[in-house]
Amino acid sequence: MILLDYRDKRPIYEQVVEKLERLIASGGLEPLTKMPSVRSLAVELSVNPNTVQRAYTQLEQDGYLYTVSGRGSFVTAESEWKNNRQNKVLTEWEEMTRQARETGLAQETLAESLRRIYGENMDNLPTDDTENVGKGGSHD
């Protein structure tokens, strides 16, 4: 189910979170599927149960899992975790875009990067020559 890399500098619980997120996003763990108990997954991974509990807690906070008292943890419906994931990515993208602007990275460079990543023509994206609302500073 999950392979951990003990040479990875990240904490084990973060690796568990990442692997389970990928399994859920890829459909390897279907919505409403009951997750293994904390204890059984800890035994399977040869880690402390607190590590698995921390991963499950993080996954619940991120919207991937929900807990039913006395019954265990379950995979959330796709629409719920997908919306949470998209919101998280959008927030991170906005922060990185602000940092790019602060370092002087041209807007057209970002637009070209988006075109390359999405592999499609995105002619409607604004360029440095287009006035932007909320850009800050004066536009000559």
Structure description:
The protein has 140 residues and is mainly alpha-helical. 52% of the residues lie in helices and 6% in strands. The protein is built from 5 helices and 2 strands; from the N terminus they run αααββαα. The protein has helices spanning 12-26, 38-45, 49-61, 78-102, 107-118, and strands at 65-68, 72-75. It has a two-stranded antiparallel sheet. The longest helix is centred in the middle third of the chain and has 25 residues, at 78-102.
What order do the helices and strands come in, and which of them pair?
Elements: H1 12-26, H2 38-45, H3 49-61, E1 65-68, E2 72-75, H4 78-102, H5 107-118
Helix pairs in contact: 1-3, 2-3
What strand order characterises the main sheet?
1-2
Question: Helical region count?
Answer: 5
Instruction: Tell me the quaternary state.
Output: single chain
Shape: elongated
- What class, by secondary structure content? mainly alpha
- Beta percentage is 5-15%
Q: How does the major sheet shape up?
A: 2 strands, antiparallel
Radius of gyration, in Å, reads 20 Å
How many beta-strand elements?
Answer: 2
